[in-house]
Specification:
single chain, 339 residues, alpha/beta, four-stranded mixed β-sheet, disordered C terminus
Length: 339
């Protein structure tokens, strides 16, 4: 992936795992002859309970090689429903081209896949139902585990970018993803050159992506690289993981407010904050107000939603570092009441 200065400025780490990328990549684990040891129980449960959606989805996602880009829409960053709407709104010409490419890659296609390629209403309705059912069966009881496995990695890289810049963040991946400015090299199934051309790069941490990263096949789509999360914590001197900082924050803020604070990664709404922390909407709003008054988060209203993000002071507290205001010789102290 070839970067310009503009691409460096527009590169970011996603706020968390993407439900559609995780769906597609988990289907590879369903196909696998020898699944990863930690996924054996999960695969047995999926094979036992999700035969109907699997019969429809597996022909679209072969065990290896190409799969259609429309199955992993950029709109899924706004949530599963937004992503599903984007899948079902894919123009017929794109459905036809992408499934045609799937056919030429050697994957046998039946009448079902051809119906999807034609964009018929019954076929798209069945596709939507299959994706929804698979998401519910495969991830309903497991999504929090997926988030928990990806969050320390995502937080570490996002904080590295905040404190030290994108160049430093891109150096955290090796050896499978190597930053050799101005080119990011990744171990991949085929040789490809992608010129970002000022569009930047979205890096998405993934639990089901194993060994090698994955990118979109169409270079005209928003540049995206889905990468396997690091199996080990950062090296000494790197920011603290969420688990390492958790006990300190709980003593300082109280358990509930610490949970709200720790789950606030990137930019998220009050509703999303409540869902992540497992508290009511009113409780999330109240805790956010206290954290905001203490200078740990900032909040802005966008249309009908309030979006929250960590301030430098908040990031420093999560990392266990002293945070200083410009020109100030003493760490900033936050004022709050525990609850």
């Amino acid at each position: 992936m070839h970067f310009t200065a503009g691409d460096i400025a527009r590169t970011r780490v996603a706020d968390g795992p993407d439900p559609f990328w995780e769906s597609v990549l988990s289907l590879h684990q369903v196909w696998a002859r020898r699944p990863e040891p930690d996924l054996v129980g999960w695969r047995e449960r999926v094979n036992r309970n999700a035969r109907a959606p699997l019969d429809l989805l597996l022909p679209l996602v072969p065990a290896r090689g190409y799969f259609p880009d429309f199955l992993t829409p950029a709109a899924s960053a706004e949530g599963f429903e937004a992503g599903l709407d984007a899948v079902l709104s894919t123009p017929r010409c794109e459905l036809r081209d992408q499934i045609g490419r799937l056919a030429t890659s050697g994957s046998p296609l039946g009448g079902w896949a051809r119906s999807v390629a034609e964009g018929t209403a019954p076929a798209l309705r069945r596709l939507g139902e299959a994706m929804r059912d698979y998401q519910r069966i495969a991830f309903g009881p497991s999504w929090q585990r997926v988030r928990a496995r990806t969050e320390p990695d995502r937080t570490w890289r996002a904080r590295t970018q905040w404190y030290s810049g994108t160049d430093a963040m891109l150096r955290t991946f090796g050896p499978g993803i190597r930053w050799r400015p101005p080119v990011l090299e990744a171990d991949y199934a085929v040789d490809r050159d992608i010129h970002l051309a000022g569009r930047g790069l979205l890096l998405i941490p993934s639990y089901f992506c194993r060994h090698k990263p994955v990118a979109l096949a169409d270079p005209s789509l928003p540049p995206t690289l889905v990468y396997p999360v690091s199996p080990s914590p950062p090296a000494a001197g790197a920011p603290l993981t969420a688990d390492a900082a958790g006990s300190h924050l709980a003593r300082l803020l109280g358990h509930t407010r610490a949970a709200v604070f720790q789950t606030l990664g990137g930019d998220c709404t009050t509703t999303e904050l409540a869902r992540r922390a497992g508290v009511s909407l009113s409780s999330a709003s109240e805790h956010a107000a206290v954290l905001r008054e203490a200078g740990l988060i900032s909040s802005t209203r966008q249309r009908n939603a309030v979006h929250h993000s960590l301030t430098p002071v908040g990031l420093a507290l999560l990392d266990g570092r002293p945070a200083q205001a410009p020109g100030d010789a003493h760490p900033i102290s936050a004022r709050f009441s525990t609850r």
